[in-house]
Amino acid sequence: MYRVKEAFYTLQGEGAQAGRAAVFCRFSKCNLWTGRERDRARAVCNFCDTDFVGTDGQNGGRFETAEALATHIRALWPEAGGWPYVVCTGGEPLLQLDEALIAAFHQAGFEVGVETNGTLPAPAGIDWLCVSPKADAKVVIERCDELKLVYPQPLAPPERFAGMVARHFFLSPMASPTLPESGPDPVKDANTRKATEYCLAHPQWRLTLQMHKLLGID
Question: Which of the residues 115, 145, 146, 185 is marked catalytic?
C-alpha cells in the first residue's frame, strides 16, 4: 500500500534540476514530524512548511500496488512526450518508496528523482538523489547527486556536510513556516542575505531559490 498526499505536474523549482518539467509525487508521513501543528514545537524538523498529512490532496490517494501508482503518475504526464521525470517527495518518501515502485516508474518511462532528509537508506535504482538534512537528525546516506541544505539551521551548519560526496551543494534560504506562500516574508529575506554571504565566502556551495514560489506555480 502506497499513501500519496498529492501528485501534480509542474516545473522543478529548486536545485540542479530547476526549470525541468516533472510530476511531483508527495508521499504522506514523515519520520521527523507528524505534520500536525500541535507537535511542531517538539519536532526534529519544526520549520517545515509542507502539508503531507493524509491522502486528500490533488490527485492523492491510496494505491495497492506499485503498478497502480505508476499508472496514476504516468497519466499526469502530457502526451507531448519529452523526458518523463517523477520527483518522489514528502513528507519523507523513503518511508514508502521501494525497489518495486522504482521499477514500475522505470517501466512507465520515468526517470526517478527523490528528495529525502537522508535519515533512511535509499533503495537501488534511483536516478537522481537529493538529500536535505534536517537539524541534528543523523544522515545515513553518504553519497547523493545533490545536497540541498535549508539555511540557516543551528543544528545543521554547512560545515557538517562539506565532506559528503555530492555532485552539487546548495543552500536554500529558510522561509517562515507560518506565512502564506505569497506576500512578503521578512524571515526569508533575511535568510537569503545570510545564505548569499555564506556562498560567497564558501564557493563550494551554491544558492538555490524556490523558483516555483517566485513564479506563483505549484
Answer: 115
